[in-house]
Amino acid sequence: xxxxxxxWQDFFKSEKFKRNLNSLKGKLxxxxxxxxxNGIYFDALSDLYNLSExxxxxxxxxxxxxxxxxxxxxxxxxxxxxxLRHSGADCVIISSPNPDFIKEYLQKNNLVKSVILPIYKPRxxxxxxxxxxxxxxxxxxxxxxxxxxxLCCTEEELQTKINYEKVLQRVKKRGKSGEKLSVxxxxxxxxxxxxxxxxxxLKKDPGFxxxxxxxxxxxxxxxxxxxxxxxxxxxxxxxxxxxDGYDYDKKTKIDLKTFAPDIVFYQQPWYLEGENHxxxxxxxxxxxxIPYGYTTLSEKNWGSDAVRRVYSNLWMFFSExxxxxKFYEKAxxxxxxxxxxxxxxxxxxxYHMPVKQEFEDLWKGGKNRIIWAPHHSINNTGLCxxxxxxxxxxxxxxxxxxxEYSFVVKPHPALRSACASQRFMTEEEYDAYMEEWNxxxxxxxxxxxxxxxxxxxxDVLVTDCSSFFAEYFPTxxxxxxxxxxxxxxxxxxxxxxxxxxxxxxxxxELPVLLENILLKNDDQLVNTRRKIKNKVFYLPAQSVxxxxxxxxxxxx
Length: 556
Prior knowledge:
CATH topology of the largest domain: Rossmann fold
Number of domains: 3
Distance between the termini: 38 Å
Structural class: alpha/beta
Number of helices: 22
């Protein structure tokens, strides 16, 4: 059981929450209710209490049910958000630690006509909040920021601000005295590794000691992957030292504090909990995150309460562009918190590097090179982007019968587990399917990170993902989006890129399009893509990695 689950169970056992629950029970006597937002918070709540003893529960609802076919969850009927108005409920109870964002979403999209109440909303202690702001002022002597953070940050965020200022003062003293500052990178999936050039620059700098990359397994509600051995192999190829970050005796992730880092780079906001959460790391290290991909989806399809809590409690978050700053300010609640900076993504630095021969060798057979990159959201779950079910047989047969094309299949790292969890394929069937691709004389499967050399040596990208095409866009090559009904909508950035896509809605449309683009050289969107690239991509003259390292040096 995760430490986050245990944390909420302990909270729900408290007398303060019990009084709140009984008070809410009295207010909603003879009222029908729906619980909205069914994550770890709700799991901990419903596993501890029989909610039907307190409320007349009509069902539960969550954004993922909009495309999912789940009949029930935790014994309660699942209701699509779009059907909430017709559910017969008198009240929607938000089972989330951050109910305001959910309430705004429900009201903004006119999804409810009933009363909306949080299961629990902590009251802000103004005296405690003021005390934290005063402590921040004593540490920084900045009256302006002390007032601003008092108004704009939660108590937790104010505390992490204080922690970071104390850590910053400590590392500055150590840096001035000539001591090396230790830097730690955390990685769960090498496919999302985007720090290679940041790592190399820090490794060369005499002021830093770069520790081995800590490899964590993925342990979550819907997915468990122990991929440390594959990750070790990947990092060894990159010339990067790494260590297994899991204690197999205690069956827990190793506490990052044992490595004594001054700076910690997280790979992604998922799977962070307990002592390794930035809230706790802030007591002794500066925490940093860079998006592992490009955000292109609408904010209502983005993130979660847990992700927002991670982002708002980081020391620094380096975003993809100034546009994305505005997105994160709203979607992740980062406005006025001074931990958001647009630098661009260091992944794009790969475009400045020569192609390695091993990636040229991936291309077998035909001269016309096609990347197929399928997403993991199969069975209309979650983001509802994956077209893998519709295309997996068709594309394999197409590759067998069209040797004039060469394919590299680059599946999302979560596709294998998604196929198994959705009972579409077993893991063995999935592996056999990918092996069938690998055995073709004109195809290869690539499942690791550092895939930009595949981009640079390809002719076209065929995908249903949301971030991959943004990373591919700087190539200037054609992009084919395998579209589908009810796909998660794009944000403003994604809509700009969308103007440069070719789209197909059925498998039989794809061969005609590929023939026109590759064999007949009829690429009608080439100039459109060039204009979009120049307009919306943040591609500084210097490498993005060097900008990030210069920022660190300027601060410490």
